[in-house]
Amino acid sequence: MELVTTWMQPLFAAWMDMALAAAVGVAVVRTAVTSTASSARLASMARRACALLGIGLAAYLCAGTVAMTETNVADLPASLWLVLTQSHFGAMIWLALAAWIMLMVATVRSAGQIRNSLFVVGLIGFALARAATGHAADQGFVSFSVLIHTAHVLAATVWAGSVGICVLLTSDWSDWSGWQPRQRSALAHRVSEVATLALLVVVGSGLFNVARTLAHASNPWGSAYAWVLLAKLCAVAIATGLGARNRWYWLAQLDHDQVNGAKGFRRVLLVEAMLLLVVLALAAKLGTTMPA
């Protein structure tokens, strides 16, 4: 039981957050992509991200059910139905399932097309379900806290997803194949601008979440929650520094069509993406850890 609560729940929560970030990243980046080949690659990434999202949701439901009911494998089906029909957690799983179905329907088209409006609604719905299964739901599903945390989840996935998808999409920048200078510059600027705006929302909503969660704690540093939070903040600070380096140094060189500019921009972006995966993993751990 401790294994499920301590490791399995955070693991599958992180799995979902990373898959959601990938899907959100596709939605953000695709507006800056004009080539047919790149659009088709993005559509393929979206389908894979949504498939992983569904697997993560099913695993998270099972892990959450075991943690809540202390059931064994033989009784798991009955316990799953009980959780799905008799708990707030189950209601949010239904919402996440409905959002996931929208995402899958939006990505089934061939020829690299995605139904934009349905895809965006599905992403927002899934982010809302994720936010409402965390500590923000302590004040009720329909509450200001859940709204703020939904914005936090969306902003975090926009930042991590746009950076991660850009890294995957630009794997051929080293040989310049299929990328004109203007296309490279447009994509880099899009990612930089979106990441900057997302960072502002992440910081603002994150400060609200910290104040709400730890405001009444007499000894906040006496809990594991505070130390995981500190590690997350450190990772966010380092990722912010890397993003600033890209925006103010490598992006300027890339705009002048310098070979080192494109290579340097992607190299820093890769490290930033890895750090943001750590941030998402730590955020998932926070969501399943009791505050002080």
Q: How is this structure best summarized?
A:
This protein has about 290 residues and is an all-alpha fold. It is built from nine helices and no strands.
Helix-strand layout with pairing:
Elements: H1 2-29, H2 36-69, H3 76-86, H4 88-106, H5 116-131, H6 144-169, H7 181-214, H8 224-255, H9 259-287
How far is the N terminus from the C terminus? 22 Å
Runs in which pLDDT lies below 50 for 5 or more consecutive residues are none
Number of strands: 0
> What is the percentage of strand-forming residues?
under 5%
CATH architecture: Up-down Bundle
Query: Under CATH, the topology is which?
Result: Formate dehydrogenase/DMSO reductase fold
The share of residues in helices is over 70%
Secondary-structure class: mainly alpha
Mean pLDDT reading: 87
Number of domains: 1
What's the tally of helices? Answer: 9
Give the biggest sheet.
Answer: none
CATH top level? Mainly Alpha
Oligomeric category: single chain
What's the alpha carbon Rg, rounded to whole Å? Answer: 20 Å
Give a written overview of the molecule:
With 292 residues, this protein is an all-alpha fold. The protein has a single domain (2-287), classed as Formate dehydrogenase/DMSO reductase fold (Up-down Bundle). Helix content is 78%, strand content 0%. The protein contains 9 helices and no strands. It is globular, with a radius of gyration of 20 Å.
